[in-house]
Amino acid sequence: MSSSPDPRTTTATGADVRVRFCPSPTGLPHVGLIRTVLFNWAYARHNGGKLIFRIEDTDAARDSEESYQQLLDALRWLKIDWDEGVEVGGPHAPYRQSQRHDIYRDVLDKLIAAGAVYESYSTAEEIDARNEANGRAKQLGYDNYDRGLTDEQKQAFRAEGREPAWRLRVPDEDLTYVDLIRGEVTFPAGSFPDFVLVRAGGVPLYPFVNPVDDALMGITHVIRGEDLMPSTARQLALYRALVDAGVTTFIPRFAHMPLVLGEEGNKKLSKRDPKADLFLQRDKGFIHEGLLNYLALLGWSIGPDRDVFSLEELVAAFDIVDVNPNPARFDQKKAESINGDHIRMLAPDDFAARLVPYLVAAAVVEEPPTPAQQAMLSAAAPLVQERMQLLGDAPGLLGFLFTNDFAYQDDALASLPANANEVLVASVGALELVPDTDFSAAAVQDALAGALITPAEDGGLGLKPRVAYGPLRVALSGRRVSPPLFESMELLGKAETIRRLGALVDARG
């Protein structure tokens, strides 16, 4: 028998929208998980609805308090807020599954009273034996045998010391819903058997507690990954029973986001891939605005030929029905490029402040920076803001401004032309003539251009700028790449600039 979407499916819109983020506290937060909460958050904020953050921590062997704290750290760094849930409370507390066992028992009792579930005593061995005897493939699993147990048979099992599991009586009809991303989906009748909600001994399972929490917390829209789509059939069946038993009054809408693929091949981005590790990306120097912008593009677009947008623009434009169902590929270079765009959008003081943790971690500045270090940072940050993609580049780009003791990088030394010493000596001579009171970037540039770029017949070396200024950059920073050269000299001052130029001459012998 074919079916249509259940008419009791919610029609909630606007402020009535309630979505949820319900991770298990296992392992480190990864970008796929963050995209899930981002889409839920953006949908809630777009509609003026609510985001509920709860924790699915019933797997004591895998769950950890450390992982729970890391989830909180991740969301706080990303500035993704929630309206109800752990840490903030709300009308449906507690928001950790491990603290809700009495609630699950009460819901089970209601399902028992409504005849929606039944006692099941079959062991795995007994199910396999029956399937073999009936010529039924073992992989088909449970055969709904216990549906028809008599009271005498149940009593006999109990007399053996067996405890029953509780299975949902799955409807013998097609189950259809309209996926907000993928359109109408139908699960044919008989495509899955009656399934266990509560194990023998009273342990509630995920296929039970997840929809029950959604029902009791009034979740109207379940937005999650494509990999969870097969479980929707069981959830639809359970939701029908929950409505019939008076636990809830509606069935939520479902939306299944596309897979996130790795950079090569067609495999899902592994949680063990370094690119999937949220905190590794943060350590590299992503800012939350840049990373969230990029993650939003994994299945969604704000418009044609536009990749960079603010979080406010994301919220204003986002609708879950606009998400593309096709797999999205994680592209590290594109992510870093977009992050660089967001770095350039920061106010200068904000940008400088965000560099501090990276400079502290590399022992470039103290925590907090000294007044002299802070003054140097405020002056130097604008020199690199236009050319940085990751905040983690800050120690390498700016470190030379905070110390007189640095090493020359091998590739920098290898880049020096044969006439490097001649260039350095001529530069020292030119800079010594610049008045101490006018050692500005403009004055420095004029002096060096006269000595190095001016044709030989006019008293200069007649060099091309790249050849002329490369050795100076190496002398000042020890690197081939540095902030703008003349501005760096101004920040270092005349005496230190000349000392460093001479030091490279001495080092080359």
TrEMBL record:
GO terms for molecular function: ATP binding; glutamate-tRNA ligase activity; tRNA binding; zinc ion binding. It comes from the Bacteria. The keyword Secreted does not apply. It catalyses: tRNA(Glu) + L-glutamate + ATP = L-glutamyl-tRNA(Glu) + AMP + diphosphate. A motif ('KMSKS' region) lies at residues 268-272. One of its GO terms (cellular component) is cytosol. It is found in: Cytoplasm. Belongs to the class-I aminoacyl-tRNA synthetase family. Glutamate--tRNA ligase type 1 subfamily. This is Glutamate--tRNA ligase. It comes from Microbacterium kyungheense.
